[in-house]
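FAQ: What does a multi-protein file look like?

Like this. Sequence, then tokens, then the next protein.
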Amino acid sequence: MTKPGSIRHRYRIEPDWNDLPEHTNTLQGISRTEVRLRFRREKNSHRGLREFTELKELVIFCPNQDAIEEIGQLQSLEFLYIDETRATDLSALTGCRSLRHLTIKGGTQVPSLMWVADLPPLESLLLENFKKITDITPLVSLSTVKALGIEGSMWTQQKLDSFTPLSGIPQLEALFITNCKPTSAGLLPLHELDNLRYLECAAFYTEDEFMALQKALPQLSCDWFVRIREHGSIKAAIKASIKR
């Protein structure tokens, strides 16, 4: 769980777990005027979610396709965090016209990102373990996003064709690509991101690639820049971290 005060909290791709409402797996007895909700779907316990018309922040676990359709009717929703969904079509989320922060972890059955183009003007978007996705070209439509994450899960690597589409999102300030590996071009497309200030990634690249990126973007903060400088190589940096 991410520590409060981290970059992920600052850009709101992770909720402040200590500040969330009490967890519930039923909507019975909960006021429809609630503005924040942490909810786990069990069977049909999500039915009636659309009635929470004043809801601004929703953390939901295991929503199915029907639950996604209900969420899509929440016009006041500003922050949505989805943990594990078997839904195949996320286009209903484009109906949340007040949405500014969207995180979806475990979208394993989603076949395409075409729906992203119709989302409202987001400030942050994180997609984790979308294992059927390799083409991220639709992300170039994210003209307002300042923090973006395309990540694999702890056990599953996210494979992409290339990071090249990211060069079409010049306003990006923070990029999270942990356990995500492109099949071509490596980190080179990131050289075009003049506003990028923070990068989280795995050690899938050579020392030369990291140093070239640092030279292209001297304002960029990346843990691997520091670790390579301290230890001389990625291999030595990893070995040193294991010894701790």
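And here is the next protein:
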Amino acid sequence: MKTSLPSSRCVRIAAVTLISTIGLLLGASGQNQAAPRTSQQENTARVRTPVKAKAQPAELEKVSGKLTLSKPAIHANLTVYLLEGGDRMDTTNVLTLDEAIGKPGVVDVKETGSVNELVVQNGEKAKSVFIMAGDIVKGGRQDRTLGTDLTLAPKSGKVPIAAFCVEQGRWSRRGSEDAAAFSSSKNTIVGNEGKLAVRAAKAQGEVWDKVGVAQSKIGGSLSKSVAQAASPSSLQLSLEDVDLKKTADSYARAMKPVIDENSRAIGYVAVINGAVYSAEIFAGHDLFRRLWPKLIETTAIEAISEKKGKAAAKPATAEDVKEFLSAAEAMPATEEQIQGDFWSVSAIGKSAAVFQTVDKSSKGQWLRRSVLKK
């Protein structure tokens, strides 16, 4: 018999410290009776707030002046400006998580027994794998969103990575999925509020709250619930809603001409309801183009979720977009070690936040910079 964690035990993080035990977890595959929990298993299975490393002053590289904007692409309440600029590095040998996950001998993403930590491993002999903060991995005991940008070197060995649950009430296999591993990564967490909960607050309870907000906003815009029967609280399953995907596809199709015309683009800025919403900048055009379908789907869903929001009194212009990028990279920044040579660099101000992961063994090289409007 497989014993799943009762939904009342999958509580918000604020209540976690009150729990002294959480019963039995998923039994070993193929066995009829779940084995008794050891004290070590009890400890690792608890929901935990990831420990924040000590931050120290840092500086963001100034790149906005080296970028040019494409003509705007507009659909409904979304305007997109592509960013063109020289490649910072050759990214042709860097796989995305979506390209690599679930393929034999490439990338494994597995459970550790802790809600807030997974383990990843790149088995590729020649190619690195880039994990984006916010990537959702589907399966395991609960769907997760990954907490940081991270590059897995070829033959990386097992590497721990921070993760946050984007689903509640499940701690067992769902359908035919593997309870110990994750099989796909087709979407990312949506909404700047959710992204900030992952990258700035780093708080599980806040992530859960923002997932609920996102589901509610999307459902309100579509005039239907996007909660799915298999797991109503799962953000990933909500993002797979047929009507939502159909609507998001209409946004993506409208953006296709501008991406086709700007083959050397390395990023983009999204303007929703006339206000600058976010920007993504990558180290190379090849990596950006392969991530574009995932990125534009996320942005389209964010625009859909904000369709009933208030429009800006004065729609943002190209000059406003440039000022947004310039002001963000001028904010005071801090850095904290993730592991080894990888450090998270962030600047969080009153109106915007910037995040990137740098590799200090490669002169501070970074693959992605995210800029979020607060």
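Q: Is there any per-entry metadata?
A: Some entries carry free-text notes. For the entry above: The first strand starts at residue 56 and ends at 58.
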